[in-house]
Amino acid sequence: MYFDFKTEANEKIKIKFALSSVSQENAVENMRAEIKDWDFERVKKEAQQLWNNQLNKIVINATEDVKTNFYTCMYHAFINPTVYCDVNGQYKGLDQEVHTASGFTNYTTFSLWDTYRALHPLFNIIQPSRNNDIVRSMITHYNQSALHMLPIWSHYANDNWCMSGYHSVSVITDAIIKGTYKGDPNEALDACITTASHRNYEGIGKYIDLGFIPSEQSGTSVSNTLEYAYDDWCIAQLAKKLDRKNVYDEFIKRSSNWQNNFNASTNFMQPKLADGTFKKTFDPLSTNGQGFIEGNSWNYSFFVPQDPAGLIRKMGGEKNFISRLDSLFTMRLPDSFFAETEDITREGIIGGYVHGNEPAHHVAYLYDWTSQPWKTQAQVRTILKLQYHPTPDGLGGNDDCGQMSAWYILSSLGFYPVAPGSDQYALGSPIINDARLTLENGAVFTIKVINQSEKNIYVKKVLLNGKELKQLFFSHKDITDGSTLTFYMGSSH
User: Fold this and answer.
1) What's the Cα-to-Cα distance from 282 to each of 145, 218, 268, 269, rounded to whole Å?
2) What are the two backbone dihedrals, phi and then psi, of residue 173, each rounded to the nearest 5 degrees?
3) Phi and psi dihedrals of 153, rounded to 5?
4) pLDDT for residue 108
5) What is the structure's pLDDT at 103?
6) Which residues pair with 486 in a beta bridge?
7) SS3 for 417?
8) Is there a contact between 482 and 443 (Cβ–Cβ < 8 Å)?
9) Which of 226, 350, 219 is nearest to 287 (CA)?
10) What secondary structure letter does DSSP report for 357?
11) Which of 134, 220, 354, 417 has its CA 20 to 30 A from that of 403?
12) Phi, psi at residue 186, to the nearest 5°?
């Protein structure tokens, strides 16, 4: 749209703008409800207050640079998903009909391949009511879908089917396991099962029959298999919670399909042909034509968040596993690597670890399953320092609807959800001095960090409510009960 106005010097033009997916009448109604007058300063002040109310749910004590990064990340994390609902509750559905959201706010913009990893787990901590509405929106999407599928990448009244996996099931399971979702869990599980059983979508039929997707039939055969296996583990966890044993047995078996793409002779995940043999031409550094989407085998070979202990065994035991992780973080990638990457530059990479894309976001935490957890602490600190800066170009890659930012928020607080769908968080290395998380249930989760500094990156001990943690993990209930987590830091491991 283009408008001409006859204006004098320094004269201001005021504009009101409103949207609706349903009608012009609804757009006008939205405008009248949300911006009743022409008081720009009032609207600005109210918007600032709304944001401050959200940002103050986590109050940290840290350096100015960390504060700038942290609250910028909170702002980024809370932008998406977006409300897709008029003030009267109406919205255009996936079936292109007009629907009315009853008892929830309808959302869209579900970049699920990215956001299931840390953004939705963050919401389960700090915005559970919103995440409940998001899951309700996913179930609504499913009910309106002619294909009877949960959203893959929901975008207004459409699905653009982008990326691997059916990660709605991760978000749904995580919300139910953590007590966030208030709808019918069995209805949700049925939607997950139906989506995961859609044989003609992205190789699911072959995945079910063979336990892997033949390379001849898909350019992303390996990443699809790995991500389906994780999602299937999520379905199994939900079935276990709901005491649906047949479903649990089926999907826990499917969750081990990652093993079918693991080549024990190379220690890499590799594409497999329909005859069951591994594809002969294989380059673990390449991101092109190797069976992966937005990643290479070096990064994807660690994508078994549901079973790190099993992956360690497959890779020949702890010593070999640690050596492989060390190599990932310290190798030097050739310049030719970047000729094939879609949106990653050298700034988004540490060694061969690609932080600017999401498939390896959990990998730094895998040392927690070994006898050298101090390497998790060191690598998390390195990522926080090198991949996030308080500058306009401060991200090492696309923020991807808040996932990059959610990783920073949780990691800077000292923990991370390696496998959403579990109620477990793995410990890292906090860069804040203390934090106060005010939860919707009225509880307060407090984090205290003793002797934290740029040199004191190693965790000497951790207390939960004054008692020393004997493991490198704590539970979601520890947060929602309003506990105090105290880290003692030092300069040596």
Assistant:
1) 38, 15, 10, 10
2) -60, -45
3) -145, 85
4) 97
5) 95
6) 448, 463
7) coil
8) yes
9) 219
10) S
11) 220
12) -70, -40
**Helix, strand, or coil here: 467?**
strand
pLDDT in the model for residue 398: 85
Distance CA 492, CA 240 (A): 42
CB count, 10 Å around CB of 52? 9
Are residues 158 and 141 in contact, defined by beta-carbon separation less than 8 angstroms? Answer: no
CA dihedral sign, ordered 204, 208, 213, 217:
negative
Tens digit of each residue's pLDDT (9 = 90 or more) over 160-169: 999 999 999 9
CA angle, corner 378, sides to 337 and 223, nearest 5?
40
Instruction: Report the percentage of the chain scoring pLDDT > 70.
Output: 100
pLDDT higher than 80, residue 261: yes
pLDDT top residue among 303 and 346: 303
Amino acid residing at 107: Y
Phi and psi at residue 266, to the nearest 5°: -115, -15
pTM over 0.90: yes
Say how far apart CA 220 and CA 374 lie, in whole Å: 34
Longest dimension (CA), the chain: 76
Residue in this structure with the two tokens 């709605």, named with its chain if needed: 168
The amino acid sitting at 313 is R
Helices (H) and strands (E) in the chain, counts: 17, 19
Nearest alpha-carbon partner for 368 in 288, 284, 453, 309? 309
CA–CA distance, 458 with 412 (Å, rounded to integer): 13
Distance between CA 149 and CA 206 in Å, rounded? 18
**pLDDT 10s digits, 88-145:** 999 999 999 999 999 999 999 999 999 999 999 999 999 999 999 999 999 999 999 9
Evaluate if residue 176 carries a pLDDT over 80.
Answer: yes
Counted residue by residue, the chain has a size of 493
Say what the pLDDT of residue 124 is: 98
Q: What pLDDT is attached to residue 342?
A: 66
Region for residue 270 given its phi and psi (left: phi exceeds 0; alpha: psi -120 to 50; beta: otherwise):
beta
pLDDT of residue 457: 98
Query: Closest Cα partner for 247 from 205, 307, 194?
Result: 194
242 to each of 185, 231, 279, how far by Cα in Å?
A: 8, 17, 40
Structure tokens at 11: 């004269």
Cα dist from 14 to 17, 37, 40, whole Å = 10, 11, 8
What's the whole-number mean pLDDT along residues 316-344? Answer: 88
Distance from chain centroid for Cα 152: 14
